[in-house]
Design brief:
Length: 171
Amino acid sequence: MSKALTVTTIAATAVVGYAIYFDYKRRSSPEFRKSLKKRASKQQKLKAKKDAESKQSKLEAVKAALIEDLKENPIPTELSEREAFFMEQVATGEQMTKDDPTGAAICFYKALAVYPNPTDILGIYQKTVPEDVYELVVMMIAVYPPASISSILNKGPAAASAGLGPEEDLD
């Protein structure tokens, strides 16, 4: 019993001694502090680079999935089909939210594309759709904006609030 206690005491003393030495070096040695700062900044740069790479790869994957799905299942252009299509896509997106976030985001994107006022539906999505799915929808809009969003972006904020049409219609 006393042998185990002695070994434990020696190990604890060594750990405490190393901690005191490390703290002393950290406080007093400028080179040591510089090396710690360099190491920390290097780790931050690596983390930022990995985050940027993962975001870019995620963006490319979302873009490819969206374009492939739009080729296979195009968005209807007739007014009579658009309402049914909207309801179908929202229902499908809600069902797919937990299992397949990318598929759900594609459904919500398609519903947004046929909705007459996309800014309203985006606000609703932000409140009701899970954050990861909403982020994917926003990525899809950034990568491949639907015609309804493009027309709002081309009008500008003043024209959009006044209800004016695109500049092309004025000619």
